[in-house]
Fold each of these.
Amino acid sequence: MSGSNRRRALVWLAKIIVSAALLALLFSRVDVATLWAHARNASPGWLAASIGVYLVMVVLSAWRWGVLLEAAGVALPAGRLIASFLVATFFNNFLPSNIGGDVVRIADTARPAESKTIAALIVLADRGVGLLGLLTVAALGASFAEQLPGTGIVGPSILWLLLAAGLAALALLLWRPGALILLLRPIQRLHQEWVGEQLEKLEGLLVRLRRSPGAIGLCFSGAIVVQLVLVSFYFAIAISLGVPIAFWQLALIVPMTFLAQMLPVSMNGFGVREATFAYYFTRMGLRIEQALLVSFVGAAMMMVFSLSGAAAYLARGRRPVDTEA
């Protein structure tokens, strides 16, 4: 085994250990039999509703991605983008990494964009705008939930400051794209010609996006709506399980769990997600069992839904289109 493969294997092993340790700690504090009994009593109607809500979230996410693509001069049918997003959702849920879905989206749009670099940058921009939407909903949730117990160590003021910093960074990138290119110039030493070409593509994309402020505003608004729909998904899960929690409390918890899962310390967020749910639920006077139920059932419903992405992938009869950078 080469040195790089050994390091990769050690990293995955460490992530598995972290996930297993966190889950073992949480399960040591609950009655598993009671947990399973509550899970079996979940309302089928509300679980079905949660699947429908998740579909709405995927459609809106694909639309937001399409708005960015169109602003960059890449127009694709909505159905094609939704199908690509479904496949990406499947890969995100069933591969030991959250970037597998991004690879699918990049491959699916590289040829229409006439560049893998442009396709990748648009997906990266979509991720960035999504993060701003997540921070917005988290800040709103923290502000509303401040009147309720258990807002946690990250209060609304910190979240609003992070959001303001993110929006300022976005404005700076669009208003002065040349400043970013100037900062990145030193990496041209790695490969003068190739890196130079990629930096030109980056600057060109930022200029295009700057000329479409309406598209950027739509994407940001869409990102907020997507996060609110995702909170609604978990709210439906909580109702199905009879967990007494307010929507705005979940509007704080759900974004915080996704922020925690961005830390590259676990396998697909397992353990970290459950620990974050447990932290906030117990601060709000709820039980760890209820936190684990909402987290696990939510993850299970996502995985069930993402099987539609597997069907969409098999229906293609081929792999995503590839092209040169």
Note: The radius of gyration is 21 Å.
Amino acid sequence: MSTAPQHCPSPAELDDLELLLTGALAPLRGFGEPGSPVTLALPPEVDTQAREAGAVELVDPEGLPLARVAWPAGVAEPLSRPDYGPFRRLHLTPAEVRERFAGRAVLVVTGALSDEQLEAARDLGPLVLLALCGHDRHGLPATALLRAGLVAADLLDAADVVAVPLTRRADDLRDRVVQAYAGSDRVVDQSELSPLPEPAPKPGETYYTYGTHSGAIGAIVRAADKAPDERGLVLFFTGLSGSGKSTLARALVDRVLEHTARTVTSLDGDVVRRNLSAGLTFSKADRETNIRRIGWVAAEIARHGGLAVCSPIAPFDETRQQVRQLVEDAGGTFFLVHVATPLEECERRDRKGLYAKARRGEIPEFTGISSPYEEPQDASVRVDTTGRTIEDALDDVLQALAAERLLDLTAEPAVERARPLSVVEQGPTPVVEQGRPSPVVEQGRQARVETPEAEAEAPLRILFVCTANICRSPYMEAAARHHLGDTSRVVVSSAGTHGFDAKPTDAAMAAQLQARSIDSSDFRSRAVTRELLDEADVVLTAEATHRTFLLEDQPEAFRKVFTLGQLAAYVESSGTTARGRALVAEAAASRGSASPGLDVADPYRRGDAAAQAAAEHIDRLLATVLPALTPED
């Protein structure tokens, strides 16, 4: 027979184990007995090993063996007495309580005694305050309940506190457990000491918020009874690769920092893999280990009142439930966001070709293709990012958070952030196309710093962008420069999303420029860079796909990146009289669509007719856009 594996149960299971080993659940002797709510869940690999060995050894969080449990029979035999956790001295066995406090009335408490209840308790004589403090109980946290009980005991003539880790799931066995501790002594429930409020609490609710709590007990209650928006909170985004979950999570982090004084920790899947989970593979087991690690860290953040934002794929419901339990055991709130962008859209966004590789069998166990994604049935909110901006999709999350009174980020910040002396404004960002590692956005990075006066005097910088910077964008640059003439109020340049290095203008487009008496012989192509985007006041792309490509790596540039057709459509339809930078800001605020129907078609290697059509299309758009972009003198 093989050696029994070791396993550290959940906090609630450890509570159940303690009651089993002390005889508080007698005649139950183990987990999983017929009709019993006291069960033990083992991970699949531990379950297999335990069945082979005929037993599993249960250990505490520090690795101390507590019990040997026959498996799968479930009968538990003690190995040592627990010595972990706060107030361990208050954890007595039923036999110890019956012997030490024989003849005392047993007062069962699930919440802090109110002033009225304390007064009524004085008439009961010497007492045992039997505090039901299992880890999964609602209401006052276990440590706060025990601290309030100790204060109450000091205020009574003769009273002692005993901690009983009865879990919520074992409430059906409550009378049995209480009787094990009380023996033949009188039992009084806390609710009998004062009338219940109208309407009465539902079964399972605690009473610590009812009545008057003054003095030290009141301070404990007030400290523990935090408003929902003051509690530890874990925002957990789950969805397929490419669904937009990381982008939404980053936008939410920014919104929290802008609107509140709360600290926030981002646990992005890619970042965690490089640090906390470095060395793990992408096997199913390692992927689930990665999620559990994220969950453990997030729960610890919530335990201390912090806010954690997580954005792993997390495809399996069982693991998500484990994370939820970790967070709730830590006293935090778990808010699940299902980013439900369809698989087809995620594949369309995939620039690295991961989905295609998975379909060819080159990537095993790829979620959505060769490994399942179990859609959450318990999500707090469901968001489909298809065809939406980040700000629009994020609003679904913000409204749900506000409705549950967890965070209200729907209004403008109470104090407007001081605007840096920068030309580049921050603004809403699109749901970017995923499929490659999330870019690291350098916070606070500014290409140039200008005073408002200098900004007003500086020329407006226009950057035209197409694919290779040899057809459409060099035509835009040269034609715009020709159209603008001698003005120094606007400066134009161009680049390509996948730009060739130092190549001349495509012959067909150069011929179109030549036909308009515009010389492009000195032009040489280049790739677009972050620096070029930073320096530009407005970026005009030939196609919507170019715009999406730019915003994927630099989403904060949303307010100044448009397709040429999109900006021209705004100028024509809005009737605006704004000019220059004011026009750019106004167009950004309008949230107009960069519809592919407004694109300038790519003429590359499609012949002279396609080149002529592209040139004429660009000419019409520039004739609309350039006068509006030229600042007034």
Note: The longest strand covers residues 333-339.
Amino acid sequence: MDTQKITTEYRKSQWINIIQKRQDSGQTIGDFCQAAGINKSAYYYWLRRIRKEACEAFEKPDISTDITPTGWMQLSSVAAIPQQTNSTLSIEISGCHITVDINTDPELLKNICRMLRTL
């Protein structure tokens, strides 16, 4: 049992309470310290120390064993996505309607569209 560490933690908890009381009072630091009989330098020392510890605790990153980088998400595989085999596309050009599906030759579709644009 480290008595110095326990003493420091006890003092820190006392100063956290003092700082909270000062903030709740709405008084300036100078007025509060004078009324409470607290050394202003000691107040600032503990305020700085407590803020620093709070910031350090806030900044510590979570150590993760996951190999996925943060900000990324796992996508499902292509096999898990259901395929629609009966999907069709309807196109209207110059009043002519064309319906194509996945098996339609892209080159043929391109030629038909070109021809319909000239009408």
Note: Strands lie at 88-93, 96-101.
